[in-house]
Design brief:
The chain has 212 residues and is mainly alpha-helical. The chain is built from nine helices and three strands, in the order H-H-E-H-H-E-E-H-H-H-H-H.
Length: 212
């Protein structure tokens, strides 16, 4: 199912729905498992948001089981990614991105608040941290950095629960800071060259680059 960028944002960027998608990522989850994973979400709200995600195409029902006379659904992410695709990202307006980023940060703050509400909070033992670094990178170095990071993280995305593993959230933000590089200075034509008959190059230069 093709999902437009605006429709994706409407469906996914919701505090409860984004947590459901995160809980299902990389695994199949029953309704009962989701209730256990999201204990602070009222069951009626959880069922309603699951229905919204399924109807919107961001979640699939991959199995239905009979449990004590009732039907229990098993959910998984669809084959297409439950994220904003590159085309939709490129076509989003600055206002769209402001909304998307606000939802991203709100979700991150909610997860961090839930972590701090645990009975035991131990940053060192839990491997928790938050940092800001400034990297000076050329375009080629940035591409190599992204490739190396994907190569490191990619195999870990296939890990399932169990074997002593705990779900851990890794959030990334990467953006240029400061002012963009100044453009190369425009070379002005010699005085009067734009008015010389037959010098079309000078005339084109004058039209495309008005005096500043």
């Amino acid at each position: 199912m093709e999902i437009s960028g605006g429709r994706w944002a409407e469906l996914a960027l919701h505090p409860v729905r984004i947590r459901i998608l995160r809980a299902v990522a990389g695994a199949r989850r029953t309704t009962r498992e989701l209730v256990t994973l999201l204990p602070d979400v009222p069951q009626a709200t959880l069922y309603r948001q699951l229905t919204t995600l399924v109807e919107g195409g961001l979640l699939d029902v991959v199995e239905e089981r009979k449990v004590r006379g009732a039907v229990e659904r098993v959910y998984a992410l669809p084959a297409h990614s439950a994220t904003l695709d590159p085309e939709a990202t490129a076509s989003a307006t600055p206002e769209d991105h402001a909304r998307y980023f606000t939802a991203f940060m709100s979700g991150l703050l909610s997860e961090f608040s839930r972590y701090l509400a645990r009975e035991r909070v131990d940053f060192a033992a839990d491997g928790v941290g938050y940092h800001q670094l400034v990297l000076h990178l050329s375009d080629a170095e940035l591409a190599r950095f992204a490739s190396d990071l994907n190569a490191l993280i990619g195999p870990l995305l296939g890990n399932g629960p169990g074997d002593g593993r705990e779900a851990r959230l890794l959030a990334t933000v990467l953006l240029p800071i400061g002012q963009p590089p100044a453009p190369e200075p425009t070379r002005e034509p010699p005085p009067g060259s734009a008015d010389v008959p037959g010098t079309t190059e000078g005339k084109a230069h004058g039209i495309g680059n008005p005096d500043r």
